[in-house]
Amino acid sequence: MSVDCIAMAGGAQAAAAGKPRTRNARGEGERLREALMDAAGELLVEGTSAEALSIRGITARAGVTPTALYLHFADKQELLQALVARSYEELLEMLTEAQASAPEPREQLKAMALAYITFALERPQLYRILFATYIPGSKIMPPGGAPGDPDPGLSTFELLTQAVARYVGDDRDPFAVAIHLWLELHGFVTLRPVMPAFPLPDPEQFAEEIAHAHLDKRR
Fold first, then answer.
1. Has residue 20 got a pLDDT over 50?
2. CB 138 within 8 A of CB 80
């Protein structure tokens, strides 16, 4: 699967070609809502900060008037939080499917690590929004965060933490182990695209190596 084929809902291709989106017809509210999130995501990936992102800029990219945004979102922040939540949902789905594909805890963790790498390398736009873009109020927070203020990334990290706990048992802190695994995965997927000549291991080998380093040796 090429990177071009996975551009956010095809919106980046239209933007790159300099073609405005077709306006949504009445009654296509969900399509418009998705188009607004796609437009915001494109602008973030192109380098516009969340703070500098404007409603006028988002709606212009989506091919609608500024007032159209308020039909679906209270403000820009709500739109950005919805974009982050949607991106996490896709990552969570991939990790959940990977976990279900393996019968044993260790193999589940390896499969999840590979799924994380696949998500980052095949969906770089979404990965950048989640882990390389500062969006106030939308970052993952650890367990015990403010009640009634759920973080959309928390379910994703909890899935990894629970998978670690099934393998290491009670002898180690699964949350701490999961943090180290995540940091190493993030480093790998961040360096691989920008240092193609460096002899990094292939994804499957790397997933096996970090599982051995952080799980097997200290179990």
1. no
2. yes
